[in-house]
């Protein structure tokens, strides 16, 4: 089982700044992640919330269940120390993902407060960032 967790505004993919985030919807993203999981022999559950408290609760759930996570923290990436502290308690791999490449965008997106407690980060490959992250987790599961 792998949890794919998404932070604020990602539920609006498809209509949200399509020049940056593409034309595919959140449902397309969820289908892509579940299909990738099927190919990798992993059950993938995809969730999205605009609520910091709910997202932190899911990170706690993953820590308690030793469940690997693919996380797009969206704007929380840049300022949520509470989310960072929750991720620091992780008990399984957690891959930070971004659809865009935040390092190539506005200055305030250049810093991730969660990167230092993630296993690693994949950014800038559109929805394929999630596919790469799922592969990375599947690889770690089979080699560890
Ligand atoms: C994002 C990048 C963040 O800077 C932004 O706030 C998002 C999406 C991405 O996937 O490219 O909401 O995480």
UniProtKB/TrEMBL annotation:
<feature type="binding site">
    <location>
        <position position="85"/>
    </location>
    <ligand>
        <name>substrate</name>
    </ligand>
</feature>
<keyword id="KW-0456">Lyase</keyword>
<comment type="pathway">
    <text>Metabolic intermediate biosynthesis; chorismate biosynthesis; chorismate from D-erythrose 4-phosphate and phosphoenolpyruvate: step 3/7.</text>
</comment>
<dbReference type="GO" id="GO:0009423">
    <property type="term" value="P:chorismate biosynthetic process"/>
</dbReference>
<dbReference type="GO" id="GO:0009073">
    <property type="term" value="P:aromatic amino acid family biosynthetic process"/>
</dbReference>
<feature type="binding site">
    <location>
        <position position="109"/>
    </location>
    <ligand>
        <name>substrate</name>
    </ligand>
</feature>
<feature type="binding site">
    <location>
        <position position="72"/>
    </location>
    <ligand>
        <name>substrate</name>
    </ligand>
</feature>
<dbReference type="GO" id="GO:0008652">
    <property type="term" value="P:amino acid biosynthetic process"/>
</dbReference>
<feature type="active site" description="Proton acceptor">
    <location>
        <position position="21"/>
    </location>
</feature>
<comment type="subunit">
    <text>Homododecamer.</text>
</comment>
<dbReference type="InterPro" id="IPR001874">
    <property type="entry name" value="DHquinase_II"/>
</dbReference>
<feature type="active site" description="Proton donor">
    <location>
        <position position="98"/>
    </location>
</feature>
<dbReference type="GO" id="GO:0003855">
    <property type="term" value="F:3-dehydroquinate dehydratase activity"/>
</dbReference>
<feature type="binding site">
    <location>
        <position position="78"/>
    </location>
    <ligand>
        <name>substrate</name>
    </ligand>
</feature>
<dbReference type="InterPro" id="IPR018509">
    <property type="entry name" value="DHquinase_II_CS"/>
</dbReference>
<comment type="function">
    <text>Catalyzes a trans-dehydration via an enolate intermediate.</text>
</comment>
<feature type="site" description="Transition state stabilizer">
    <location>
        <position position="16"/>
    </location>
</feature>
<feature type="binding site">
    <location>
        <begin position="99"/>
        <end position="100"/>
    </location>
    <ligand>
        <name>substrate</name>
    </ligand>
</feature>
<keyword id="KW-0028">Amino-acid biosynthesis</keyword>
<dbReference type="GO" id="GO:0019631">
    <property type="term" value="P:quinate catabolic process"/>
</dbReference>
<comment type="similarity">
    <text>Belongs to the type-II 3-dehydroquinase family.</text>
</comment>
<keyword id="KW-0057">Aromatic amino acid biosynthesis</keyword>
<dbReference type="Pfam" id="PF01220">
    <property type="entry name" value="DHquinase_II"/>
</dbReference>
<protein>
    <recommendedName>
        <fullName>3-dehydroquinate dehydratase</fullName>
        <ecNumber>4.2.1.10</ecNumber>
    </recommendedName>
</protein>
<dbReference type="InterPro" id="IPR036441">
    <property type="entry name" value="DHquinase_II_sf"/>
</dbReference>
């Amino acid at each position: 089982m792998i949890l794919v967790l998404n932070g604020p505004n990602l539920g609006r993919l498809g209509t949200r700044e399509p020049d940056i985030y593409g034309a595919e919807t959140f449902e397309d993203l969820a289908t892509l992640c579940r299909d990738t999981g099927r190919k990798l022999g992993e059950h993938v559950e995809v969730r999205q919330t605009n609520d910091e408290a709910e997202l932190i609760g899911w990170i706690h759930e993953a820590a308690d269940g030793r469940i690997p996570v693919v996380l797009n923290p969206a704007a929380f990436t840049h300022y949520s120390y509470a989310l960072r502290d929750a991720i620091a308690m992780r008990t399984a791999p957690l891959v930070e993902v971004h659809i865009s490449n935040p390092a190539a965008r506005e200055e305030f997106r250049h810093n991730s407060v969660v990167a230092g407690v993630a296993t690693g980060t994949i950014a800038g490959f559109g929805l394929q960032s999630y596919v790469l992250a799922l592969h990375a987790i599947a690889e770690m599961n089979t080699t560890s």
